[in-house]
Every structure is written in structure tokens, then in C-alpha cells.
């Protein structure tokens, strides 16, 4: 405090937090003066660092000629309370640019001043979490979870947690960009390996307001988008084709086996027939006789003619005689 000790100016020691877009009151009071005329009172508000005039009052009225343009039509005192020692400033429609240190200067014959800090705060929108693309995701994929919020001030504090409340600090990036009004948009990205039935929380806190916003996402097995229908159809067709090829191979193998068995049987029959003919040739005579009657016990007389011979068939018998060529070179009479 400066000036005569009889005049004291009182301002808050702690910073004043003003909400963006609302009206804020910067409290300032003075004491130590028992009686004075309003015309003897002067009140000046200015920015502590630049000394730019925020609001001026003397000679019983506002004096705004030297007022900084950005405060035009946005400031006022409480005239009816000045005589009681209230020199507070009403600042309308607070902006981010209004943040800073303000000095309250009071003069009544003597002077005194006090400085206070005003901080501006704006709540962020409710956070929103999105994850990856909307298709072709499967467990084990690396996915980027994105948490966004808008329109806050000052910069937010962002914290990622898993479903058990454990803090996730690895593979996290945060970016905050201010718009033309000075309000921030925050974007935080958490990179994870995709697992079914996993929950991830994004907690966003405004350090001045202490407000916390939260958004979460739970990735379940049902939430995962597996390969599209076309791929499943391709796999199914491939399986069916493979099964068909296996079946055809089995049929061909059976047919080949049957053909081989038939050929083997024919070869064996042929060999047996040749062996039989050879045996009959060695015995010198052979015939087939099929009796059709009952009297089949009569002797059959063999008559030879040249190198062939036939059997005389009884009248009572009906049969079939096979003529066989015999080698009678040595048996001819």
C-alpha cells in the first residue's frame, strides 16, 4: 500500500476467477476517511503492467476519454456506493484478453492503491471419445482412441485411465489450440492394442474451475467389426471346392482300383484257360458232353477220321459235342 496511512485501499489477496462471457466484479474498497465530498473523490482503474486506463472517475462523474478501447462500454462503478467507500469495478462480458492484474487507485486529499489478479475461466464441452475406423478391426490391431473437447479456458488437464482406474501415461499425445476468442480445443490421442471387453476413460479437468468431464468407451467382442461378408463367402467357396476335389479324388481312386481288380481277374482267368487247354492237349483227348436225357450211361463209340475224331451220339441223348483238334501223328492206325 502506498500513500498516507490514514487512507487504506482493500482488494482481494487471492486471484478472482471470472467466467468467460459473464459480468465480473473487481472488489475494491477504501477506508480511513470519515467525511469527504464526492467532488473530492477520484477513482482510477488501470492494468498494472501496461498502465492502460480501464475506468476513471473524478469531479463526481466518469471520465472515459483516456479509456482503453477494448474496455469501451464494458465498465462501470457503483456511484451510489462511493460515499460509503465502495470503489469496485463492474466489468461486463468478460473476455480471455481481460485476464491480468488490475490496480485500484483512490484519492481523497491523499491517495492509496491496491492490485489484484483476475483470471478468466471457461468450462469445456463434454468430452467425446472415438476410436479407430469403423470397419476391418480385429483383436490385436493397434487403435488410436481420440478424446476431444471444445471451448474451454485455460488449457485443460487430460488423464487417460483403464477400466480398473489405472492411469495410462504411455503412448499419449495432447494438443490444445486456441481460437480467435482465446478458447481452447483439446485433443488427446491414446494408442492401444485392441482387446475385447476393454474400457478406456478420458478425464478432462479445468484447473481453475475444478470441473471434470469424463467420457469412456468400452470395446467388446460384439463391437469389433470382423472381415466383411464377401471374405466369408470366399472362404466358404474355397472350403467347398476343396471338399469337392477330395471327393473326386476318392471316387477316381476307387474306380482305378476296381479297374485294376477286373484286369487282374481277367488275366487270371485267361491264364487258367490256357493252363486248362495245355493240360487237355497233353491227355490226347478232350470233349464236353452235356446229357439231356435220362439214359446217359451207354458207351459212346469213338470213330477216328484222319486227324480228327468224333463221338457217335446215341439217339436217346441230346447233347453238345465239342470238336477238338488232336495231334494224332503217333496214334494214327
UniProtKB/TrEMBL annotation:
PROSITE patterns: IG_LIKE. Keywords: Coiled coil, Immunoglobulin domain, Membrane, Transmembrane, Transmembrane helix. GO terms for biological process: regulation of cytokine production; T cell receptor signaling pathway. Residues 253-282 form a coiled coil. Gene3D superfamilies: Immunoglobulins (2.60.40.10). Pfam families: C2-set_3 (PF22705), V-set (PF07686). The keyword Transmembrane applies. One of its GO terms (molecular function) is signaling receptor binding. GO terms for cellular component: external side of plasma membrane. InterPro entries: BTN3A2-like_Ig-C, Ig-like_dom, Ig-like_dom_sf, Ig-like_fold, Ig_sub, Ig_V-set, IgSF_BTN/MOG. This is CD276 antigen. It comes from Labeo rohita (Indian major carp).
Amino acid at each position: 500500500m502506498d500513500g498516507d496511512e490514514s487512507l487504506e485501499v482493500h482488494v482481494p489477496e487471492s486471484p478472482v476467477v471470472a467466467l468467460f462471457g459473464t459480468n465480473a466484479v473487481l472488489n475494491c474498497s477504501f477506508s480511513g476517511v470519515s467525511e469527504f465530498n464526492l467532488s473530492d473523490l477520484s477513482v482510477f482503474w488501470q492494468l498494472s503492467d501496461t498502465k492502460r486506463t480501464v475506468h476513471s472517475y473524478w469531479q463526481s462523474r466518469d471520465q472515459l476519454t483516456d479509456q482503453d478501447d477494448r474496455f469501451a462500454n464494458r465498465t462501470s462503478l457503483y456511484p451510489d456506493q462511493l460515499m460509503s467507500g465502495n470503489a469496485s469495478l463492474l466489468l461486463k462480458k468478460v473476455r480471455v484478453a481481460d485476464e491480468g492484474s488490475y490496480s485500484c487507485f483512490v484519492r481523497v486529499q491523499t491517495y492509496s492503491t491496491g492490485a489484484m489478479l483476475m483470471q478468466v475461466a471457461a468450462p469445456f464441452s463434454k468430452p467425446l471419445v472415438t476410436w479407430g475406423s469403423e470397419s476391418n478391426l480385429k483383436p490385436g490391431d493397434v487403435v488410436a482412441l481420440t478424446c476431444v473437447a471444445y471451448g474451454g479456458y485455460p488449457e485443460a488437464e487430460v488423464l487417460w485411465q483403464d477400466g480398473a482406474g489405472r492411469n495410462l501415461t504411455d503412448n499419449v499425445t495432447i494438443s490444445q489450440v486456441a481460437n480467435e476468442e482465446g478458447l481452447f480445443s483439446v485433443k488427446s490421442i491414446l494408442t492401444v492394442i485392441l482387446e475385447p471387453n476393454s474400457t478406456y476413460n478420458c478425464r478432462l479437468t479445468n484447473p481453475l474451475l475444478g470441473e471434470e468431464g469424463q467420457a469412456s468407451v468400452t470395446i467388446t467382442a460384439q463391437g469389433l467389426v470382423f472381415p466383411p461378408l464377401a471374405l466369408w463367402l470366399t472362404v466358404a467357396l474355397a472350403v467347398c471346392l476343396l471338399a469337392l476335389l477330395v471327393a473326386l479324388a476318392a471316387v477316381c481312386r476307387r474306380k482305378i482300383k476296381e479297374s485294376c481288380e477286373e484286369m487282374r481277374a481277367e488275366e487270371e482267368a485267361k491264364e487258367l484257360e490256357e493252363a486248362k487247354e495245355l493240360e487237355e492237349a497233353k491227355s490226347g483227348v478232350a470233349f464236353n458232353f452235356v446229357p439231356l436225357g435220362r439214359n446217359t450211361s451207354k458207351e459212346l463209340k469213338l470213330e477216328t477220321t484222319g486227324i480228327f475224331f468224333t463221338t457217335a451220339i446215341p439217339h436217346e441223348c441230346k447233347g453238345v459235342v465239342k470238336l477238338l483238334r488232336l495231334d494224332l501223328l503217333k496214334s494214327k492206325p
